[in-house]
Fold:
Amino acid sequence: MTDSSLISGIAAPLGIANLDTDQIMPKQFLRGIDKSGLDQGVLWDLRHDKRGQILADFVLNMPEYADTKILLAGPNFGCGSSREHAVWGLQQFGIQAVIASSFGEIFYSNAMNNGLLALILPQKDVDKMMHQSSDNSIPLKIEINIRTLEIHSSNITLSFNMSDRHQRMFLEGLDMIGASLKFKEDITAFSHRHWAQQPWVRDVAARTKLNLILPSL
Structure:
């Protein structure tokens, strides 16, 4: 059984500042009507040349980083547009966590609400792991413990913070919808009280539509 409190795996250094959501998930990959196949578009312009050929020297194209689970990213990762596809694509690509000193605000919310850990550390700590990754002859492996709020590598132990709400969501394997449904009974009880006190607002859209249709019949 998978331990939902741990994210463990290879960490790839991607120290590009202000890497925006259009670079993470280019617009030409947003044409589908579902989430499938988004992994193909992840960081397309960084992973490919102008002819669409794989760039062998890009970190995520290197064989030793084929099983990357964690990105060590530059500051302001995920800035730009609000496209949630950037998060979905990274997850389909196999990324479970992104570590950076700062994130685009909307990307951060999208990531945490979808189960992609966006972990904020001081830049000096991100740099320390970047250097450790670059100095090793083999890729750096990192373990993130969401229960104890600690990061461990071969010779680094760091602490991090996250909100109680997000910590519970990750430990329980819930996205925002799942977390909201835990309060389904409370939500239903509130709605019944609300409609009882103000019955004229219940199903107002459906009743308005019906009133518009009936005169024409």
Observations:
- Residues 184-197 form the longest helix (14 residues).
- The mean pLDDT is 92.
